[in-house]
Amino acid sequence: MTEIIRGNKVKKTINLKGITWNHSRGFLPMVATAQRFSELHPHVQITWEKRSLQQFADFSIQELAVRFDLLVIDHPWAGFASKTNSIIPLDDHLSPEYLKDQEENSVGASYESYNFNNHQWGLPIDAATPVASSRPDLLAEKGLSLPKSFEDLLALADKGLVAFAGIPIDVLMNFYTLCCSLGEDPYQADDLVISKEIGVKALKMYRQLATKMDEANFNRNPIQVYEAMTLTDEIAYCPFAYGYSNYSRNGYSRKHLHFHDMISLDGKTNLRSTLGGTGLAISSKCEELKTAVEYVKYVGSSACQQSLFFESGGQPGHLMAWKNAEVNRQSQNYFSNTLPALERAFLRPRYHGSMFFQDHAGDVVRDYLMKGGNEEQVLADLNKLYQESKTLTLA
Hints:
It comes from Pedobacter fastidiosus. With 395 residues, the chain is an alpha+beta fold. Helices cover 46% and strands 14% of the residues.
């Protein structure tokens, strides 16, 4: 094994491997922080690999934890992590003072989202929720203003200027958004995803909007929506998709996007979307645990989040970064404009079987949006999947 001589001490080289997701927001800040950490600790080398956004949502962290020391994860995996012990509880290794700072500076429920069974399974290094986005130049060119209500949104969609992310996972998250915004959070009962009254109303509203969409949208994730909005001049507005501050920064895309809070259904309260973001976790099989913990601590720190992490393309998970004037200046006020949406975002279930439900329920809602059908049957199919997913906790 290679040895590093520093001063009069010889240190063995420590190699850590990490896995994150394939976008500038997901990959570049991890590479940058790994590089800087290695400069501060020359005996440490951290290598990051990347996987697709779909694999990020779907691929089991238990399998990844066998191959990697560090994992950027999605918070619905918290229950699975707790049951399988595939990653370590960070509260056993980070100081109470450090974790208290993280909790007090959580962007919405981001910190809580990685807490399950009284343990912290990940550090929220990235915060996101569906928000609205627009091409201000296109709206101005056509003499149009941002929609404020659902009726405004439908009118803009009639002009062919609206898109939303329509792949199954995003369709499901936005179904939750409409349910929450109609006054009822999903999963309030053990055997129902949502009440029949609210569920039917949400599906009908969603279908009404979906019929005005180009079919191409049903094959787009949020990244692909934003690429379409910036590479062409055909889409002026997206009412809800997980926000990416990269598209509001100088030099990143052909045209800037501006990001906003979302429309209101009742004229008073804006839509309540479904929390996303990513967390940094450590595999239970990591042999260099002390070093991995130090790296996690560095990446999640307020200082790193407000500077290197953001400047390398990241979307911070620390509240001080979201309130930082320079961070907002460089992103067309992305963070200050969308923070209210993060603060009220719905925290979806994270029980062990929740990923099974998430993997299948989006197909049900998406099929209905594309083809129509009986709303009560859609809800029945969702409830059946929900009940099946709950039995997986006993497996």
